[in-house]
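Weekly structure sync, notes
Attendees: PL (lead), two postdocs, one rotation student
Agenda item 3: pending single-chain targets
PL asked that the sequence for the first pending target be pasted directly into the notes so everyone works from the same version. It is reproduced below exactly as submitted, 506 residues in total.
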Amino acid sequence: MIGRSWATLAIAALVGSLLAAGMGAAQARGAPKPNGKAEPKPPATSPADDYYELQRLLVDTLDQVERNYVKNVTRRELVEAAIKGVLDRLDPYSTYIGPKELPAFRSSVESEFGGIGIQVTVEGGYLRVISPLVGTPAYRAGVVAGDRIVEIDGKPTAGMTIDQAIRRLKGEVGTKVTLTILHPGKSQPEKLTIVRESIHVETVLGDRRNADDTWDYLIDHERRIGYVRLIAFGRDTARDLRQVLERLQRENLRGLILDLRFNPGGLLSSATEVCDLFVAEGRIVSVKGRNTPERSWNAHREGTFLGFPMVVLINRFSASASEIVAACLQDHHRAVVMGERSWGKGSVQNVIELENGQSALKLTTASYLRPNGKNIDRHSATKGSDEWGVTPDKGYELKLSDTELQRLVEDRRQRDIVQPKRPAPSPPAKPEPAKTEPAKPDPAKNPPEAKSDPEPSKSLPTAKPDASKVPDAPVSPDVSLEHVKFVDPQLRMALDYLAGELARAK
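Predicted structure, written out during the meeting:
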């Protein structure tokens, strides 16, 4: 509250200083009176007086810059720069969110916005589609990965930045946007008019996509081991995760890998709800701050998913809400934590509306404490030997090299992409019937019972592919994971652990 009051008073004082038309700036700063004598500055008699003097120092500085700086600077620029200067003295997570940045911030928190549902990038000066989001207007309209967007509503995209393109693609629900698209391998572009809808960004992902582009959440069909990857903690993450777990239970789930690697966090409420899905009782997390009452969240038995071993995967980029979940499941011995030590962001940011909701202040007000009462946050003075973040369980720490990490990121990116559908191969033409009558089979030499294998389909090759050359081939129930080449040693370790646990359970 002190920081907020300071900013409010400073801005009010600034406005009062700049708009006081009847009072000269020099006189306001205690300049000499007409008789030549300067008015003596009153001594500071209390902390409140000192506080006022400091505010006046700031206001006078802004006033001088606005009136006398060599280039014109608007009042808003000065005030926003002053606010950012204050927050720069705090921590990396306390920030000012201006009117232009606020819509994007809200979209990232809500994981929902008005648009057509595509991921785009600028490649070679052109706007290209990384992937459509499954079930969105763009997906239904036939937009595919690799498409080049030539125009948006008649405006060429050549030279357009990502931010400019996203602003044109997004819009109010129910409005239309016309895209001129050049599909891969085509010479003529196609025009698509798409109606914007409320786009829900999925945060609960599986290992691979099925033929219909939905996620397959079983990574080992034979052993019934599930795999769920959370890429953020949005408002709907816990709800979506519950639906996936209910589906996996219907598929006879026996073990689960919860992948929190590269997850930067999100909402505290979402993290506590996810923890509550796996922990039946006890403390989930607590927060404590200088001017914030201590508060804690506890688990509830109802609706808890129990009865199967779990692994939580984390790495150096797992932060905030990810660390809350990993720490909770580790302290309650609900899951074995594997991978790398997490980022170490254990602080709580409150979003405070400014200017009647036109801008906002994201301010660190408290710190997280894991169920065992230990700290998660890594401060600037924290050493590697200090306790912070979440450390994998003993014997299960496996740090990837930069090369391995890059391979993992690219592998996962390719799995996330909704690939264009290839038309099914046409069956070969039927051979001309032989002119000579074939010899009749001898039943004594070829009894009908001896023929056990059906004739292979003529539309499919009979030769089996080399699995070592196709590491990302989908795993079917009759294919052992031992024959699949992984680019992910951390995931391999998790699978080996769960396979051992399930074998012992027999």
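Discussion points:
- The first helix runs from residue 2 to 19.
- Confidence is low (pLDDT under 50) at residues 1-35, 436-480.
Action: rotation student to compare against the earlier draft before next sync.
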